[in-house]
Amino acid sequence: MQNKRNVHLRLILVSGKTQDFTFSPNDSATDIAKHVFENWPAGWEEERVSSPSILRLIFQGRFLHGNVTLGALKLPPGRTTVMHLVARETLPEPNSHGQRNREKTTESNCCLLL
């Protein structure tokens, strides 16, 4: 039996590719990531990830924690809600920040008044 209050999501990848999905209000961000991973759209092959655990949803500029349900977001019924789907790998090693070149420039931003 299909719930009439299903939530329609349009997921957008960083590449700009989109795909529409339908979920239950009881589905969590983790459930959505798993479903998308297991039903990866044919047009998204270049963006395929190795595991659903690295897929993250972004809604209104915020990452959704895995246990947040769609119902808790109080999404408007009957409308398609847009969310971003990103692959968030493990954090870089602590010393990788030192590889960035942060040398100060000798350029000056002041002006001389005569």
Cross-sheet strand order for the largest sheet: 2-1-5-3-4
CATH class: Alpha Beta
**SSE pattern:** EEHEEE
**How much strand content do the residues show?**
15-25%
Characterize the main sheet: 5 strands, mixed
* CATH fold naming: Ubiquitin-like (UB roll)
Q: Tell me the helix content.
A: under 10%
Gyration radius, to the nearest Å?
A: 21 Å
Number of H- or I-type helical stretches: 1
Mean pLDDT over the residues: 82
What is the count of structural domains? 1
Shape: globular
CATH architecture: Roll
CATH homologous superfamily? Phosphatidylinositol 3-kinase Catalytic Subunit, Chain A, domain 1
Cα-to-Cα separation, first versus last residue: 81 Å
Give the number of DSSP strands.
5
How would you characterize this protein structure?
By secondary structure, the chain is mainly β. The chain has one domain: Phosphatidylinositol 3-kinase Catalytic Subunit, Chain A, domain 1 (Ubiquitin-like (UB roll), Roll). It has one helix and five strands. It has one helix at 29-38; strands at 7-12, 18-23, 55-59, 62-63, 80-87. It has a five-stranded mixed beta sheet with strand order 2-1-5-3-4, with helices on one face. The longest helix is centred in the first third of the chain and has 10 residues, at 29-38. The radius of gyration is 21 Å and the shape is globular. It starts with 6 loop residues before the first strand and ends in a 27-residue tail after the last strand. 11% of the residues are buried. Pfam families: Rad60-SLD_2.
